[in-house]
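Morning - adenosine-5'-diphosphate inputs below, output right after.
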Amino acid sequence: MRITELTVDNFRNHTHTTLQLAPGVNVLVGPNGQGKTNLLEAIYLSCVGRGWRTSRDNEMVQFGKERALVQVTALKKFGTVNVAIQLGTGLKKSIAINQVPIAKVAELMGQINCIFFSPDELKLVKEAPADRRRFINIDLSQIDKSYFYALARYNKILQQRNAYLKDNQDPRELAIWDDQLIQQGNIIITKRQAFIQQLTPYVADKHKILTGGKEKITLTYETCANFAQELAAARERDLRLRTTTVGPHRDDLAIMINGQDVRVFGSQGQQRTVALSIKLAELDLFTTLTGERPILLLDDVFSELDSSRRARLLIAIADTQTIITATDVPTSGKIFTVNNGTVKA
Ligand SMILES: Nc1ncnc2c1ncn2[C@@H]1O[C@H](COP(=O)(O)OP(=O)(O)O)[C@@H](O)[C@H]1O
Ligand SMILES: [Mg+2]
């Protein structure tokens, strides 16, 4: 798929901006603080229904304005899709697909798919398990709506169970929450395991290309062997700590190179290459699973790569619509100059 047009109104520092995007590489160029990343965030919003840098919709509305509008038109194999999202202060977010309002964000999932890559994504490799779970959650939600529903239900039940643990100490009533938590939790665990298993060969392949075949990479989803049993076994501890201590909300992804844990022992360069391998692998897996190539958003990534990695990256994304932000023109492609919330093609 590819995006043909992006229009934003009162979105962060853009009062009104329209871009006609080209099929291949598009480059948003300009000094820092001009509104380049904001445009990637608008695209991201149209894909997953939430901001890239914030979970608070209001923050994306231009200071002093009441509402923001983001519209994206994309060309897919079987036609055109138009996504319009309106955000406002004191207003519920409203989303329309092809001019038809939708009731749930879940319906937006999978309409337009994107992969976002920024230097921040190094978190994926080196920071807390929550960052790795977030990556799995966002990916799986885009390719599998039932995952998104299960995750939303799980989080709600988890919240209720934790609220119960805070205020009450009657273990019998916990059983009500436990059954539901186990049911949704097992769906999440199964789907995450399958996803990581499917992603792994693609990651290995990309990593081989980026490193010249020197390193062997493996990914393993770290979870409970039996969620129901472990939840029961943790009951006393949960009551004591007043929170739920086991479950997919505590799981992690182990990333190993030649048998060593990259999360702990990897060098900065290795971690960067792993993050890039994972992102490129996501592109291929999405394509296999959905039949459509997602859009790649590269935020300030080029400046961080050496020239050989840049060249390999460009080869890897040859058939992918890519939107790159940079402070200078790093490559050929359609160039947009971004200056204080305005854009010139
Ligand atoms: N809600 C908002 N309203 C108006 N301006 C905003 C809002 N949120 C962020 N900005 C402005 O956007 C600019 C940063 O834009 P960004 O896209 O991150 O820049 P860059 O070109 O460096 O990627 C800053 O000047 C910031 O003040
Ligand atoms: Mg930026």
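Note: The CA atoms of residues 210 and 309 lie 7 Å apart.

O.
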